[in-house]
């Protein structure tokens, strides 16, 4: 299997597999071909609901994946990174990660609202709890984490003391969102699977 996979990588490499936009284009093309070949594309209200749910889950994976990256990898690793290497995080990695983080949060909320409107949404109590938790988390992303991270990253003027305070507030809001993500994920999955 390993040799087969390496041959596939080598075959796709000249077509740009090493570039993220191309990998996403290949993935989109593959899902389209497979969906059409299996007949899983249907022009119906049910299929539209499924498609929006698929977008919602994809956006949510990006959002919560980045949230957990910050909390399980980046924040705990920062004290071990030598000071001369920290600018690579604050000037390159963190701004890019925060861009995708906040827009994935918005996409998750937007597709979640669309899904709720077009339905079916499963158990409305469970989905309501999951939505409420997710909306609080999205509020924190846009109104607490991002404004404070802009100070920390030097994207807006702030004194050294303001940056330190902003870093603590952003970290606490991120940890709060990590805490909320656990019951949010539980109730989002329960809405479709628990009567």
UniProtKB/TrEMBL annotation:
<feature type="transmembrane region" description="Helical">
    <location>
        <begin position="125"/>
        <end position="145"/>
    </location>
</feature>
<dbReference type="InterPro" id="IPR016988">
    <property type="entry name" value="UCP032086"/>
</dbReference>
<feature type="transmembrane region" description="Helical">
    <location>
        <begin position="92"/>
        <end position="118"/>
    </location>
</feature>
<keyword id="KW-0812">Transmembrane</keyword>
<feature type="transmembrane region" description="Helical">
    <location>
        <begin position="20"/>
        <end position="38"/>
    </location>
</feature>
<dbReference type="Pfam" id="PF06181">
    <property type="entry name" value="Urate_ox_N"/>
</dbReference>
<feature type="transmembrane region" description="Helical">
    <location>
        <begin position="50"/>
        <end position="72"/>
    </location>
</feature>
<dbReference type="InterPro" id="IPR010389">
    <property type="entry name" value="Urate_ox_N"/>
</dbReference>
<feature type="domain" description="Urate oxidase N-terminal">
    <location>
        <begin position="124"/>
        <end position="190"/>
    </location>
</feature>
<feature type="transmembrane region" description="Helical">
    <location>
        <begin position="165"/>
        <end position="189"/>
    </location>
</feature>
<keyword id="KW-1133">Transmembrane helix</keyword>
<protein>
    <submittedName>
        <fullName>Membrane protein</fullName>
    </submittedName>
</protein>
<keyword id="KW-0472">Membrane</keyword>
């Amino acid at each position: 299997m390993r040799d087969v996979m390496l041959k596939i990588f080598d075959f796709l490499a000249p077509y740009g597999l090493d570039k993220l936009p191309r990998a996403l284009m290949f993935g989109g093309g593959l899902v389209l071909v497979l969906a059409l070949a299996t007949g899983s594309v249907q022009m119906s209200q049910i299929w539209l609901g499924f498609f929006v749910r698929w977008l919602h889950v994809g956006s949510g994976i990006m959002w919560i994946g980045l949230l957990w990256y910050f909390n399980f990898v980046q924040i705990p690793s920062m004290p071990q990174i030598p000071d001369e290497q920290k600018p690579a995080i604050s000037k390159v990695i963190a701004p890019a990660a925060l861009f995708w983080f906040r827009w994935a949060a918005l996409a998750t909320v937007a597709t979640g609202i669309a899904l709720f409107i077009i339905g079916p949404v499963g158990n409305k109590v469970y989905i309501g709890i999951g939505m409420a938790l997710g909306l609080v988390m999205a509020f924190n992303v846009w109104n607490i984490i991002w404004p404070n991270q802009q100070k920390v990253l030097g994207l807006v003027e702030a004194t050294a003391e303001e940056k330190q305070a902003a870093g603590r507030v952003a970290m606490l809001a991120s940890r709060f969102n990590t805490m909320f993500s656990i019951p949010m994920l539980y109730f989002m999955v329960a809405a479709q699977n628990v009567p």
